[in-house]
Amino acid sequence: MKRIEPLNGPSGSFLELLNHQSGAYSPSHAGEVSAGKFQEIQATTILAFHFSEGVLVAGDRRATAGNRIMANRVEKVIEIDGRSVLAISGSPAQAIEMARVLDHSFRYYRRTQLEEMSLEGRLRLLAQLLKENLPMAMNGVGGVVPLFITFDPESNEPRIYFYDILGAHFEGTPFAVGGSGSLEVQGILRFLDRWGPSGGLSSISKKDAIVLSLRLLETASYFDSATGGIQAGDRIYPVIKLVSGKGVETVGEDLLKEMMETEVRGV
């Protein structure tokens, strides 16, 4: 049996452990893939904004390949380790794998270091995954442009970060958006935060935040064919999660159905 040499010191890095033992996570080897050989599945639209109790994160469910609708049940808002959320636009395949690596990395660090990974460590780890995915993205496949929402124990509040395809990250205050439907959503959020309710977006209630997110995604689907609309007959609703000091809460389909009927379509 082949002996596996230990790591040089307890770094607490799950990604380092994977690559040290077998090179298990190395997406850059796929850099020779050509986008012209197939149509990659893409996902949009995602958004996140602060409200009175934390941060709301939402995404539609559609995935497309060119002008074809490939799926209407894609999970674009993924919970990570109970206190963070990754919202994805771009390639679902690569983004979901990144979410798995992040989740295992955060948990591995907690077990080996007996403490939570720092906010800066979390941000840098996702940046590293995006940088290692760059060869595929430069070839026109596998590109991921995510939003990352995580609870910061030092400030005692959730924080929103958006990334570019190279791994650079920026804090979104009070909101961030991504995907092909983001132009319409971004304009509305800016208007509401500047001239909307007193106190801006961060002052609105939980109910109003959920209603706003449904209306924003419905608006995006009206102008952007790659953004999936709400299909009540098939019980296909957006994925909406709330991040706060209590952890990550998923808004249930029954509540979404009720709000769609009374606050969106019934208006």
N to C succession of SSEs:
HEEEEEEEHHHEEEEHHEEH
DSSP strand content: 15-25%
Biggest β-sheet: strands ordered side by side in the sheet: 11-2-3-12-13
Q: What is the typical, i.e. mean, pLDDT?
A: 86
Low-confidence stretches: 1-9
The CATH architecture would be 4-Layer Sandwich
Give the CA-based shape. Answer: globular
Largest sheet descriptor:
5 strands, antiparallel
Number of helices: 7
| Strand elements, count | 13
Distance between the termini: 68 Å
Look at the structure and name the CATH superfamily: Aminohydrolase, N-terminal nucleophile (Ntn) domain
- Could you name the CATH class? Alpha Beta
CATH topology-level name: Glutamine Phosphoribosylpyrophosphate, subunit 1, domain 1
Q: What is the count of structural domains?
A: 1
Helix content: 25-40%
